[in-house]
Specification:
6-stranded parallel β-sheet; alpha/beta; single chain; Rossmann fold; 366 residues
Amino acid sequence: MKVLIVGRASEFNKATGSGIPRYMAELYTNIKKIKPKSIEKRAYFSMPYVSKHFPFTNNFSFMLLTMFTNFAGYDLIHNLDPSNMIFNYNVRNVSLVTTVHDFIPILNIKKEVGTFENNANKVKALLLKLNLDLNNYMTALGMYNALRISSGLIANSSQTKNEARELGYKKRIYTINLGLDARFMSELTQQNRNKFKVGYIGGLNYRKNIQLVLKAWKLLNNKHNMELEIWGNRTVESNIMFEHYKSDSSILFKGFAAERDLVQIYDSFNIFVFPSLYEGFGLPILEAQSRGLPVIIYKDGKITKEVRKYCIEAEDEEHMTQIIENIKENGYNEKKKKKATEYARSFTWEKTAKETIRAYQKILTL
């Protein structure tokens, strides 16, 4: 069995803090440990400045580069990001498996463009909206094409698998969950905290639903000796939020959470909140639970059953406020904590790699 794993070079860098690059880097590293002679990687480069300011061009650059690549000698090509597969016909003579992380561009929960009418720079806001609309459109095209030409799909959750079926994919789908690395399995430490800290790590766009947490925080009766830390790259929306809530000294917008600091940041929290409206998987939930934290999610958020199993579900901001106050007053139930921590730590990248190799073998025997 000879397998080539392909993707954009920037997506093999887990230091970006995004879920797909972390998956790509960890999967390749762990598969290479198991099958060092059977697995190769090809990372396609794009121009950093252009990619950063016009992300939809990434799809074109990947398409053009792979169209002129000779895939002879490989039994299977594994594309780790379906948005790359725009009109790429060069893989027709070899088995292709594609990992599907979510269908956000196709499902279009809401365009990830923010509340632009509140942005003072109207021209900049309009250009950003156009850029993001184009990126959404090109990514959706890539996903549709991946569904059309792939010999099999790897879905990162049962929810993603069901969505692929609903979109008409009739070939084999293998559900293979994401994992945690060894850092998250280390011994839990009881930190001496000066303040009771509620934390969030992740994106700051509309879909992440940070407003729910901020509204809940505003309803808290006594925030003395309490802090809400929000970690994530600044966006148009987060800048608006920052301006709106900057007068509240108990809310801290901390910026990007570096990969090397994640465990330390989680360990500084008493509660982790993740109120997302939609997640293909929701890895931060497992990361937080692996560090012994209670995790509060939005009850109506579309988060796969594998990940939400031991979460506390808030119906609205008032209910979230009650949950935070209850945990602050009474602590986190030790029995629930133990179960959630053990469950989260059962998700490993080694397991992800082994299941992926089995999927390769099954596809090649079809």
